[in-house]
Structures are given as C-alpha cells and as structure tokens.
Design goal:
- The protein is mostly beta strands and about 120 residues long.
- The strands form 2 sheets. Strands 2, 4, 5, 6, 9, 10 and 11 form a 7-stranded mixed sheet that branches.
- It is globular, with a radius of gyration of 13 Å.
Amino acid sequence: QVQLVESGGGLVQPGGSLTLSCAASVSVRTDNTMDWYRQAPGKQRELVATITSGGGTNYADSVKGRFTISRDNAKNTVYLQMNSLKPEDTAVYYCKAHFWGIGTYWGQGTQVTFSS
C-alpha cells in the first residue's frame, strides 16, 4: 500500500507564500505522475499542477506563473511552491500519485487558509 503524506499548509495573507510537501512511502523515481489537487468549500476538486517522473510539468491556468511543482526523487517527495497567494487559493490541497501498473493513491490533504 502506497501512502502519501502532505504537509506545509497553514494560514497565509494575500500575497504570501507557502510550500506544500507530499512524501511518498515508496520510490517516486520512475513510472509515475504526481499531481496536486485542491478543493475549496462547496466546489469540486480541481487539478492544480502535475509533474511526471521525467520532470514534465503542467499547471491550471489559475495558478500559472504563481505556483511551481517540483520533485526530489532522493526524498520521494513532491513540492508545490505557492507564491502571490490570493484568497481564492483557499482550499484543502491534496497530493495524488499514479504509479503505472500499480495504481492511484491520494493523500489526506492539507488546509491552506487566508487570515484576515
């Protein structure tokens, strides 16, 4: 069973930054795609960013230029660097991993909330 553990969420002010981490219990070096999703209250879960094992990335239009997804294969960890945060970025952020030929797994989520 693959386990994903997210961390790094918290309170943030508009224009602030946060870095989320997703640590996997197995090697993420090859044959996988790692995603960050988010779900705001009353809304559907949406894809935020994707990174392949080859390092290719893709972003939702709403976060392009502000968020950066990256991976450290030595630590089996994927990151989401979030800059210039906006109130509409408030959500629970989830990590998802798809391992080819094995399956798809989700983390438990980490909350990002704006402080007034």
